Amino acid sequence: GAxxxxxxxxxxxxxxxxxxxxxDPISGHTALYWYRQSLGQGLEFLIYFxxxxxxxxxxxxSDRFSAERTGGxxxxxxxxxxxxxxxxxxxxxxxxxxxxTGELFxxxxxxxxxx
Amino acid sequence: xxSVTQMEGPVTLSxxxxxxxxxxxxxxxxxxxxxxxQYPGEGLQLLLKATKADDKGSNKxxxxxxxxxxxxxxxxxxxVQVSDSAVYFCALNSGGYQKVTFGTGTKLQVIP
Lengths: 115, 112
Prior knowledge:
The complex is a heterodimer of chains A (115) and B (112).
Chain A: E1 5-7, E2 10-13, E3 19-24, E4 31-37, E5 43-50, E6 53-56, E7 65-69, E8 75-79, E9 88-95, E10 105-106, E11 110-114
Chain B: E1 3-6, E2 11-14, E3 19-21, E4 23-26, E5 32-38, E6 45-50, E7 56-59, E8 62-65, E9 75-77, E10 86-93, E11 101-102, E12 106-111
Parallel strand pairs in B: 2-12
Antiparallel strand pairs in B: 1-4, 3-9, 5-6, 5-10, 7-8, 8-9, 10-11, 10-12
């Protein structure tokens, strides 16, 4: 597609349920990133993919969070047994080659609300 | 570790006023510096960047100069418009890949 696509755009769930958030990056972009944006906070890095591998998972806040990327394209972020503190906007970004001087292209985010 | 500190908002300006949003950073090595902007209802997008000391990034009338001596990358615009109302994020990257560190964002509101 023309840009980074994320779904769902909004998700309301009950505490304890599992959720999956999907990211479809720009075609041909090898690098993919997940960030979390909470109210009044900056963007918190979660995980980075280069191709299908994740060389840096250091930002995942707990073992309830996991992510995968298949075919060097679509990525899914899964949150198990959601907690209220997981409520945030989850942003996905992609870049052409992952070089540190380059531009990140962001999706519009998935807003997660845990009741 | 790396960190970015930017002025808290919201910042409210009248149209045609001069804008400065301060940004300072802490980083190892020689980071690349960025300003991203998030317009209402849209995703973040790159506004400008500078990849080495004394470089000036510019776009859409906005400018920022990479000042290594003061570890700063302040965003400026000479005459803001209502359409500039958005949240502005300062960011840096000093890694071998794009683990970009973002500031908390500064909301700008421009009133006619």
